[in-house]
Design a protein that fits this description.
The chain is of the alpha/beta class. It folds into two domains: 80 residues, no CATH class; 108 residues, no CATH class. It has a five-stranded mixed sheet. Helix 2 packs across helix 6. The protein starts with a helix and ends in a 6-residue tail after the last helix.
């Protein structure tokens, strides 16, 4: 009986020892499962692109937008005409005479010692003038002698200097150089002039002889512009002034007051 109890006690003690041993070697706490390691993907090396900008050279000319000129008014035209007819201090209209009975007494132009370019210039002017004038008409046949109503004679600079004031009433000059000397029936032009400068002086002198003895400060492209220029074309406002000057209502010797009774002139 005592042996059975002792044996049973030993079994209990042995069992307890085994349980304690197992507890010392087992896990002390519940651990989370190890995380699965995902292999990292290497980041790509960034590609850097260099862009070369094309620069506009600093010397490039700016784009200029042309301004459309304002249309002419009747006031613009009549004022331009008055500037040309009386702006030089004239007290009377000096246009060519027109006689209905004799029929255009001053109707021929001569180029004495001119060249082919001078002839072409005057021919073009005659055609344009005849279209604009309601009274005087020039013959289209240009003469080459001094026998004409208006003679344009070309002389060298030395010859210009020799022409005294008794032969002309108006001189166009630059400094000491005489470009033209304009008389009642003859126009002397410096033959040393060339190109557009020569053409401008020829036209301006002829128009002066036709009664356009004033200037304009308003229209730089006009043949009548007051500063030195080489304009060789009659602008629209120039053409309109010729139409007024050689219209049926005007005649030589009219005063400013007479003209204002025929042509409406705006007063401020």
């Amino acid at each position: 009986m005592e042996q059975s109890r002792l044996f049973f006690f030993l079994i209990i003690v042995l069992t307890a020892v085994l349980i304690l041993a197992a507890g010392c070697t087992g896990p002390s706490s519940v651990q989370a499962p190890a995380a699965t390691t995902v292999p990292s993907t290497p980041m790509p090396t960034p590609v850097i692109t260099f862009t070369v900008n094309t620069l506009v050279p600093a010397t490039s000319a700016p784009v200029v937008t042309a301004t459309t000129p304002l249309p002419l008014t009747s006031d613009d035209v009549t004022q331009h005409f008055m500037d040309l007819a009386f702006g030089s201090g004239n007290t009377q209209l000096n246009r060519l005479a027109y006689n209905a009975t004799l029929k255009f007494p001053k109707n021929s132009i001569s180029l004495f010692s001119g060249n082919s370019a001078d002839t072409a210039l005057i021919q073009s002017f005659i055609d344009q003038f005849n279209d604009l004038s309601a009274t005087n008409q020039f013959l289209t046949n240009i003469k080459t002698s001094t026998n004409a109503d208006i003679v344009i004679r070309f002389v060298p600079q030395t010859g210009m200097d020799a022409i005294t004031e008794e032969f002309y009433t108006k001189e166009i000059k630059s400094g000491n150089i005489s470009y033209a000397k304009i008389g009642p029936h003859i126009i002397y032009v410096n033959n040393d002039l060339t190109g557009d400068e020569r053409s401008h002086i020829v036209l301006r002198s002829l128009l002066y002889a036709l009664g356009f003895q004033g200037e304009t400060l308003k229209y730089p492209d006009s043949v009548f512009y007051y500063q030195p220029n080489t304009n060789t074309r009659l602008t629209l406002v120039d053409q309109k002034a010729i139409q007024i000057m050689y219209g049926a209502g005007l005649y030589p010797g009219m005063t400013v007051a007479n003209v204002k009774n025929v042509v409406y002139v705006k007063t401020n």
